[in-house]
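A quick aside before the break. I want you to see a complete sequence-to-structure record at least once, exactly as it would be stored in a machine-readable document. Don't worry about memorizing anything.
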Amino acid sequence: MATINDVLLTGTAYQNLNSVTGLISGTPLVLQNKGTVDVRVILNPTIPAASSENGWLLAPRASIIIENESDPVWAKAVSLGSLRLSVQQFV
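That is the input. The structure line, written in tokens, reads:
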């Protein structure tokens, strides 16, 4: 399996990680926050409201495994700036 390039999260808008990485919704994923600010991660069929606090809060250097979900995975930095998020297929 090929390594997927890190996703650069800029600003505070949600990004669809499935679209950015080319992995279909429902693909098990491992996410790691490589930045210095928290990342909000939400499973939702459409882009979440910018103010949404649902989902998980991923601290810097923390990882999460998302398995068997049919909704796309959305992520955003919770404060201004940019950060790298590792998104890999979980096998």
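Two observations worth writing down. The CA atoms of residues 17 and 73 lie 6 Å apart. The chain has a mean pLDDT of 91. We'll return to this after the break.
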